[in-house]
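Hello again,

I reread your note about wanting to compare the complex against the isolated chains. To keep things tidy I'm splitting this into two emails, and this first one only covers the full assembly. Below are the input lines as submitted, including protein chains and any nucleic acid or small-molecule components. They are followed by the predicted structure of everything together. The single-chain runs will come separately.
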Amino acid sequence: MLVVRAIKADDLDALYVMATQVGSGMTTLKPDMKMLGDRVRVAVASFAETIPPHERDYMFVMEDTDTGRIAGVCAIKSAVGLTEPFYNYRIGTLVHSSRELDVFTRMETLYLSNDLTGSTELCSLFLHPDYRSGNNGKLLSKCRFLFIAQFPHLFTEKLIAEMRGYQAEAGRSPFYEGLGRHFFKMDFNHVDELTALGKKSFIAELMPRQPLYVAYLPQEARDVIGKVHPSTAPARRLLEQEGMHFEGYVDIFDAGPVLQARVSELRAMRDSTLAQIGLAGDWDTACAPETAPAEPVLVSNTNMRDFRMLLSHAAPVNGAIALPEAEQKLLHCHTGDTVRTLSLNVRKNPNV
Amino acid sequence: MLVVRAIKADDLDALYVMATQVGSGMTTLKPDMKMLGDRVRVAVASFAETIPPHERDYMFVMEDTDTGRIAGVCAIKSAVGLTEPFYNYRIGTLVHSSRELDVFTRMETLYLSNDLTGSTELCSLFLHPDYRSGNNGKLLSKCRFLFIAQFPHLFTEKLIAEMRGYQAEAGRSPFYEGLGRHFFKMDFNHVDELTALGKKSFIAELMPRQPLYVAYLPQEARDVIGKVHPSTAPARRLLEQEGMHFEGYVDIFDAGPVLQARVSELRAMRDSTLAQIGLAGDWDTACAPETAPAEPVLVSNTNMRDFRMLLSHAAPVNGAIALPEAEQKLLHCHTGDTVRTLSLNVRKNPNV
Amino acid sequence: MYVVRPVEIADIAALEALAAVTMPGVHTLPKTREKIAALVERSIASFAAHVDMPSEESYLFVLESLADHTILGTASIYAAAGSNGTYFSFRNDVIQQVSRDLNISHSVHALTLCSELTGYSQLSTFYVDPSMCDAPEAALLSRARLLFAVLAPQRFADRFFVPLAGITDAQGGSPFWDALGRKFFQMDFLDAERVIGGARNRTLIVELMPHYPVYVPLLPGDAQAAMGQIHPSGELAFNLLTAEGFEADDYIDIFDGGPILQAHKHALRTFTGALQRRVATCPAEPDRNREPPVAYAIATGADQHFRAVVMACAPLESLAVVALPVAVQAALQVTDGDTVVCVRL
Amino acid sequence: MYVVRPVEIADIAALEALAAVTMPGVHTLPKTREKIAALVERSIASFAAHVDMPSEESYLFVLESLADHTILGTASIYAAAGSNGTYFSFRNDVIQQVSRDLNISHSVHALTLCSELTGYSQLSTFYVDPSMCDAPEAALLSRARLLFAVLAPQRFADRFFVPLAGITDAQGGSPFWDALGRKFFQMDFLDAERVIGGARNRTLIVELMPHYPVYVPLLPGDAQAAMGQIHPSGELAFNLLTAEGFEADDYIDIFDGGPILQAHKHALRTFTGALQRRVATCPAEPDRNREPPVAYAIATGADQHFRAVVMACAPLESLAVVALPVAVQAALQVTDGDTVVCVRL
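Full-complex prediction:
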């Protein structure tokens, strides 16, 4: 079975092996033992709560308990941009209008901003190709929302996730070619590497600081603003189901979208429920709304330091959940313990 | 009893009388027969769906059915800024950081923007002082959300409400004194009047177009950015309960906040339910969760042209609502008709 | 002989004929008799006015052949550009970009909508009959405006500028306009020029044009190439003006990207080289032993009596008087002992 | 007699003594012997270099009393400001605001961080002993830098600027800094000047200073009042430079708001008034019938042999030679038939 759990110090080697599989495009998960070691150390300290909340970086691994193999990884960074500026373009609107000529022109504009400074970031999601099937991707991505719903006081009001932007053939970014290249005079991959290494002062030095009208860009560049890389589209949909939205912020290099949410408006915050492990009373069971019998449910324990989560088919009924023994064991829980539950899939209000 | 309903052509006189009571500060409800007449005409055409959705202005009156008197008014404008530019300041963040000096400065900035162009606006809320008691204010304000939940296809994704900004003694606006006055060289009230009259080209002509650092403003002006006038605080809270938030847009003159929501995330969209007028089955009643017996519920009919809404104490149970005869009459409904219901007050998830 | 003088009511028909052949674009003569008549009347009133501070005056000059009294060219100057508003132009800013970490150093050009030329005196309409293009009278006509400013400095600002028409294609399209103005105005170049009447001081400009600097590298190649380029019809004017001391690199037109030449009067040859000389009647037989003769523009009159002609004579630098033949005196309407200003052409 | 000449190693001690009395602020001598020595060495290398394009050279001059060989002042010039980066300043923009509807018309000043002065030649350190402030040698020292540029134009740009220290209070605080720089740097004025070493070309400036124009009306009154105002210690330099032809209104310093004077060389009296004359030895008894004598700065040498002195003599405009007493010839290290440049002081 698969369980998602807080990373531990001795996961480092497995994490490194996984990072070698990631390939380019994810700047936060590079096969660099020093970088990964630092990161795991911070993550372990985060779960142990030995560093201040805004410095934390909660990293989770998905473990295949049959083999002990690490199948995936994902993380929640408590606050971005507090030591290095965190840049985005924000898409705004300017209206140019003249009554005299009866002209009304609505223009999109790009503002270089650090508006998302201090936001909590969902990042570093990677699922090993061997495990890309069934609900595994959903489990890995959505586990973070359950964690946030369990410990909301640890997070700022704003949650973000940067999505990889659209690329054409051979990794060419039409947005970068239409904008950044004129100012950086170097290849997209080179720029990408520099930012991964934290060398960001060149952004302040070379990036045009004045707001730009989108209409100045070539059509090809305009077309991809806020578009994700095709391979990222499923990941985007999962986040959108949980209440994250594209609110007009994009990456300054490839114009990939940033999804955002208010923590308090996440589906996990609204709909997740606590339940005690055990059998529900007859009356409760009888009155339970009739749902599809095999509706999967995310279930986690409520323990920060040893946070663990899995996908169950046991449904919580009026505050009780009949969790199978094996799953209790994987969660390090027993009958009578409280767990947090959230249906894996979204149920829309049928009345609107 | 009080019923909120779509305005009708013959409400004009009563509306004018009400507008004389409003006083300064609300630019959209002035005692001007020509302006009000135009507005009522548009509103009637809106409910009749004889003008395109983005031109509509749904205006509601609250009628005291005992006396026939108009007790209050409120409106939903389908889309702002499509004929005259709609200006706001957007508050952004810029980080100035130098590793060399170990300086990291996070600055707030004001961007003159028309970002909210095309948004649906909640506006023109006024409740006659004689009726400012009980749940009347809530009923009047929240009726609009039920209307939106009933006809969501008519609205854009973004919903906004402009809140009156903070004023000091004698209507002095510290924000205006610290910023606008330097460029407009006239009194706040005069500026306010000009915008009410739709004379907005002076904004393009005189307003500083470049982004401003908030730190340049006097402390007194900075302190009131995003602050509402004390008398507006209760109205703000009502909107926030329904899922509207301050997202960093403020009025360009007095820095009053704009509250925003995605229509799809409104409480009314998530939680309002349809119910048939009639008695619930025994089984349903028996299984109903035990709520406080007198929990008030907003109930509306589902008829666009003759939209009517009131506050009831009948609770919907599994798709049925036992609405008293008198209330059915006020809603122009009968047994077997479908109504939309939403609890007046918010129920928070007790599990987070 | 030819004289440059203020326009008169009687010239309207001749101007109308000139207008029929001038090119489309900015800053040429209007096409209708009515508008030409309005221009002429405004000019006559301006020359007649007593001016302490330059304001809405507009002075129109014509080049007349004294032989047959035909009008062979016209040129104008506004006392203060944008006087009832703001004169808008694009300032050509250069931003140095340096990153020592990356070892990058280059400059980026940006165009900023600005109003700095407001209140400058503006040289406008300039047209000479093709038959006269190579004659010194073409230069005389162009400089007559500055000579008038030398004679009546209180009528003008200390700085002058001249917008020259930018390049357009055969259909009257402008690549610069297509990349910029069109996006905001949503109309063709010639339509925009028509609705705005060639003006650069209207509220609608600040309403419609971009508020933020335009980074030149983001413009399409043809628009970049058009920046600061003159319409072929403006070549003569351009050459005369740069020879005069005007500089071209700082500003361009907001519509077609044509160059706007500008200068402080102290940098202009007409101002720095103007010599005040007393008039003497020419001896019947000029002194053949003197240095070879030099072409001078000779002008007089600080009001409606302004006149300017071309004359060749010995260098005047070391002389206190200028000897004028009777015919020249007649053309200038001066006589022995009057004062004229003389500038080498 | 006094001579202005390139600094030499032997002057280091004297400069150290001068540095001990100069005011705190920008563009004065460094305080440590080590840094002074580095400056001197850099200057010596610059004077000795063969230069085609102005770059990182920096030239330091001293005013020496030939009577007792004391050093009474020093002045320097950089060949190209910001040569290893970008020289940042605030450009003083004026935005015309006009609303015809509201009948409003006024101008708003805005300060824009710009790099336009990059590559200009920069006049820097200037200090004269108080005993010499009223002597013509103070003017000589200031102008010696430009005289050197006249003699060695390939070493300098066509445009020059001079930043002058702005006003500070008794505690070394700057009201302009408090309103602007402090908000971004989060430190006191003197601390900021110390960490940046008085430079205006560092990456951290673009990292920390505001990216958008600062609207002047939003600044507190004392900061507005400080804009373009000089520190009292700079008054002498200011007067000498404006008399020279420098203009003060276009740029101010990004830290203290002090004025930055600038000019094209064609606008500077030293360039426009410089006369090249052959040296002749002075007659024992000067001609008493000539016009009253005029004070001239006389200079020679396009490299480390540069020398300049003050001398009174008859006007030189119409002469081909300048008669120099033997002592002056010695001070300039010239002799009969050599060429010198002469400018009226």
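For quick reference: Chain B touches chain C through five residues (CB under 8 Å).

B.
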